[in-house]
Amino acid sequence: MFTPQGPTLRELAVQALSSVERGYDLLAPTFDHTPFRTPPAVLDATAAALAALGPFEDGLDVCCGTGAGVEVLRRVCGRRVVGVDLSAGMLAVGRAALGGGDRPRTEWVRGDARALPFAPAFDLAVSFGAFGHFLPREWPGLFAQVRGALRPGGRFVFPVVAPARPGSALYWTLWAFDGAMRVRNTVWRPPFVMYYRPFRLGGVRAALERAGFAVGLRALPELGTRPDGSPRCRLVVARRD
């Protein structure tokens, strides 16, 4: 997809007709060569913001995939970094690329973000590009699971891109993609949940607060501004009181 190293159209079609877990197992070997991986500019801007918020000792990457967020955590955490994901294939790619390490120690755990297998052991949790795989009604439970993995005062941090301008090419692309996924899930089982259009800051903030977080926002100026001067991307910083 878009590069010789990326998945073919046939491979993407097979993935789209699979479950989320199986689909990402299939996509894992070529995932880092697709546009679905979080861009380096977003990762770098987030890492810079986290460095200013720290120091941190233990970090958790929720829905870590092949480890983009794990790399960010390894820059800002001093003792331990854990990546958790439902896909064994994505974890295997991340483990092969990044390994374990000693400082910080890096671990890879297979698990469902809706039932995280952790006691309150982390002072920082992050997530990049995974929230479209959860329906809005699942957000409060998902965020409650992350809160349960954080020590008191711990932070859950993730970037949120400003919504596409109505009428723009990106706006209609997201509408078309969302519609195609809804049609697919109406006529085919198992479902493949990937709806990014509903993930808007207002609803997300309300769900975080309902889960017990105090929510703040930080602009990421490195990623530019919109024509009205507002940031193109903000960092949600949710603190477990």
How would you explain this protein's 3D organization?
The protein folds into 2 domains: 1-36, no CATH class; 37-163 and 200-240, 3-Layer(aba) Sandwich (Rossmann fold), CATH 3.40.50. Helices cover 37% and strands 22% of the residues. It contains 8 helices and 7 strands. It has helices at 9-16, 20-27, 40-53, 68-76, 88-98, 139-149, 169-187, 201-210; strands at residues 56-62, 77-85, 105-110, 122-126, 150-161, 213-219, 233-240. Helix 1 packs antiparallel against helix 2. The mean pLDDT is 89. One of its GO terms (biological process) is methylation. InterPro entries: Methyltransf_25, SAM-dependent_MTases_sf.
Please state the average pLDDT score: 89
Query: Which percent band covers the strand fraction?
Result: 15-25%
Distance between the termini: 43 Å
Number of domains: 2
Low-confidence spans: none
Number of E-state strands: 7
Question: Given the structure, what is the number of helices?
Answer: 8
Classified in CATH, the superfamily of the largest domain is Vaccinia Virus protein VP39
Class from secondary-structure proportions:
alpha/beta
